[in-house]
Amino acid sequence: MPNIVETAVSAGDFTTLVAAVKAAGLVDTLSGPGPFTVFAPTDAAFAKLPEGTVESLLADIPKLTAILTYHVVSGSVHAADLPGTPSATTVQGTDVTFDTSSGVKVNDATVTQADIATSNGVIHVIDTVLIPAS
Asked: Domain FAS1 spans what residues (predicted)?
């Protein structure tokens, strides 16, 4: 079974995320033993950011790393685990919140595909890039 990075690469709609993970030097981490839960924004989610945002992040590796690690939670968190779980602390160090009242939301992002199993964790596809409070 492929790991998180291999799964994202083969899916085809995470090219911006994969490029960002490579630029931030997180490939080895997210290919490691884990387990990790990744809330993975699609290329369409990155496209919703203001023009020039992705390019400026790729030029600011510390900020890019903070944003990317804000999408990762240690351990395997499946959709069935989320009801009754109001939040989780990300690898970046601050919390994301969950709302399962109508589907599954992580902060303001909607999970469009949940529980993609990988060899070192689980991926949940989201429609919005999560930005930690500064």
From this structure: 1-130
